[in-house]
Amino acid sequence: xxxxxxxxxxxxxxxxxxxxxxxxxxxxxxxxxxxxxxxxxxxxxxxxxxxxxxxxxxxxxxxxxxxxxxxxxxxxxxxxxxxxxxxxxxxxxxxxxxxxxxxxxxxxxxxxxxxxxxxxxxxxxxxxxxxxxxxxxxxxxxxxxxxxxxxxxxxxxxxxxxxxxxxxxxxxxxxxxxxxxxxxxxxxxxxxxxxxxxxxxxxxxxxxxxxxxxxxxxxxxxxxxxxxxxxxxxxxxxxxxxxxxxxxxxxxxxxxxxxxxxxxxxxxxxxxxxxxxxxxxxxxxxxxxxxxxxxxxxxxxxxxxxxxxxxxxxxxxxxxxxxxxxxxxxxxxxxxxxxxxxxxxxxxxxxxxxxxxxxxxxxxxxxxxxxxxxxxxxxxxxxxxxxxxxxxxxxxxxxxxxxxxxxxxxxxxxxxxxxxxxxxxxxxxxxxxxxxxxxxxxxxxxxxxxxxxxxxxxxxxxxxxxxxxxxxxxxxxxxxxxxxx
Length: 485
Ligand SMILES: Cc1ncc(COP(=O)(O)O)c(C=O)c1O
What we know:
485 residues, Aspartate Aminotransferase, domain 2, 3-stranded antiparallel β-sheet, 16 helices
């Protein structure tokens, strides 16, 4: 463990800081807090002992002790005297709700499959973004296509992955969901007065299904990987494309939500060919692509031919960035930018600057993130085997969730009574069209092991209740429409 920070080095970082406008201990705490917030004083740094800092600064030890106490109270210093206290960020800033891995009503939230930020990395990116911001302030602030520096960084990442891409093939969006809505507006409007058709996997990502329904298009579901069927049924995909010639096909081949499956490369090649032959715009959602838990090899679908790729930093880094992108042909990107202005006039610039910094250090947070997810995936599988042995869940290749087959069609009933046992669930039918998937529920392994255990025990109790009172199932109301991610 590194020793305490040198007091002279801290004094240098602080620069001239005393204004005599308030009590010295408060000013000292303020300057240290600012250093932490703007990233110049890294997190987890042991501060100098009170004695050494007071000697270096030529102030009383009481002042330094009071400043450290205030920093601890504000959450910027871990407990422990002097050198034992380390810089950190408060769990919740004043006036800001504690971050939600649990829902506002205190329930454990299993409807969201999302992770907290890769703390320090994201924080550093925002500090750097604030330094870059002054250069943008003289501009209008509208960047319909996204900031050039970020478009270039996204394009470079595709190029490095074997898919040559230039910045004019990238449109920066406020996340993947926003990207999909833009694409649907541009590609799936009514044709000759009839709703457009959109091929979807079945099950699929609920917010995508909602966006398709909301755009007035009709979803054409094609089954993906039921039990005993490890991958996509490409014969069925090809047949649907050939027969219906849908305007759009929306697929999540990279750790599919909710099953976590990875489409093998030969299927990717067939998919691209079949979509091209049908004149269908192939939309590939790569939001989960970096959550490759088993280290499997696969190429971007775009490496096999024409498609529209959608990406996001939400799962790899943090959903709070609300930053994603579309990669497509130049002319398509121009059309999508024109459509975008019906929804918004560009994304926030500070987030895009931060995203550009994250792109430069893209891999940095991933090893720790993936290691934690692998552990939690294993924990959840063990907990289900122990407490809910009648549930079946195939091991996912990656992503954030287990798609569990229930012993009976009780998904909606379970969702309705689960809050009474302390958890919030998304019912299986939200992942399908026409009421399918009553036999399924998606459980994320994004919570810490302790919370996963609490959640699984709660689900066991809820299932017991349904088994003990089967008549309950008929009497239950519609489940509340919870937000899902
Ligand atoms: C497949 C898929 N697409 C899109 C999204 C939404 O991503 P974003 O937060 O970038 O809008 C998610 C989030 O869970 C997802 O799993």
